[in-house]
Each structure stands twice: as C-alpha cells, then as structure tokens.
Design a protein that fits this description.
Layout (H helix, E strand, L loop, with lengths): L4 H4 L2 H53 L1 H15 L5 H18 L3 E12 L3 E13 H13 L3 E11 L6 E13 L3
Antiparallel strand pairs: 1-2, 2-4, 3-4
Length: 182
C-alpha cells in the first residue's frame, strides 16, 4: 500500500505547500545561483571600468606622443652627457662658481664628490663650503634649483660665521644627473 500525503491534504494545505516549496526554491536559486552571478558581473564590471580608464590614459598619451617627443628632445640637451667625465665635472663645478659669484656668495672650498654610475645615467656630486648673508645664500640656492640641468641640492647645513655676525657659513651637497648614451 502506497503512502500518499497529497491525497490526505485539503485544497488549502496543497496551495500552502506549493507556495512553501516555491518560496524555498526561490530562496535557494537567489542565494546559490543569482547572487554569485550578480557578484561576478559586478566584479567584471569593475575590471572593465579599470581597463577603460587605462585605455583612455594610454590613448591620451598616444595622442600627445608628438608633443612629448618634442619636449623630450628639447630637454635632452640639458641632461645628456656630451663630454667625458672630467669635463662634465669641471663644467658642473664651473656652473656652481658662476652662480655663486653672481649671487654674492663666496666659495671657500669646492670638492667634487663621488660619481654614481648606473646603466643609463650618472650622478655627479660636489660638496661646497659657502659664506654670505642669508639673503644671498637663499638667492644662490634658488638659482641652482632654477637651472635647466638636473642639479639638485641634496643637503645643507648652516651656522653663524661669528657670534654676532649677519653672515652664515655652511656646507652644501649637490648632485647633477646626466643621461649616459654610451
């Protein structure tokens, strides 16, 4: 003899049972099928958005390629190593001396430093001792930083020259970066 539950149920119980089964089926499908699909679609949308932004940026760079190349060629003259190492160091130190004299800063000592060599560039350094009033020293440092060459002041220290003097004495470490095309 078969045991049939549906035969013993009233019409109302059958409707409630079908609704309960459909609700559980809907919950299961939404939890285990639809939600993971929607999450995956959101993840893919985010990846597409990031890729579109990268593509847009690359397009802008490509669009500006001629301008960038022209600017590179114009500025290359300031960072390209044209002479041998000794001549570059001499030119670097000479440029510092010229700026110091035009800024009313006296150089008491100037020493070429180490040359850092990398695959495509070299960094020449120099240590200088200067004496002057603070306004002239600030002007000197400003003139160094304004040069088209990549000369940068890496460090500096200052102290009063004498106890009641307006003049300062100090040490500066500078670096010049040049592209090595050899």
């Amino acid at each position: 003899m078969k045991y049939n539950i549906l035969a013993k149920m009233s019409k109302r119980e059958k409707i409630i049972g079908v609704i309960a089964v459909l609700a559980m089926l809907f919950f299961g499908v939404s939890t285990y099928v639809a939600r993971p699909l929607l999450d995956k679609m959101d993840e893919l949308d985010q990846k597409i958005l990031v890729a579109e932004k990268k593509l847009h940026k690359a397009y802008q760079i490509l669009f500006r390629e001629n301008t960038i190349t022209k600017e590179y060629e114009e500025n290359l003259q300031f960072v390209k190593q044209d002479q041998n190492e000794e001549e570059e160091i001499a030119a670097f130190l000479s440029e510092i001396e010229n700026i110091a004299s035009s800024s009313n800063v006296s150089l008491s000592d100037i020493k070429p430093g180490n040359v850092e060599k990398a695959k495509n560039y070299r960094i020449y350094s120099a240590e200088i001792e200067i004496e002057s009033e603070i306004s002239y020293i600030v002007d000197f440092m400003y003139q160094i930083e304004r040069l088209p060459q990549l000369i940068r002041i890496k460090s500096f220290t200052f102290s009063p020259k004498d106890k009641n003097s307006k003049e300062l004495k100090g040490n500066l470490t500078m670096a010049l970066l040049l592209i090595d095309e050899s």
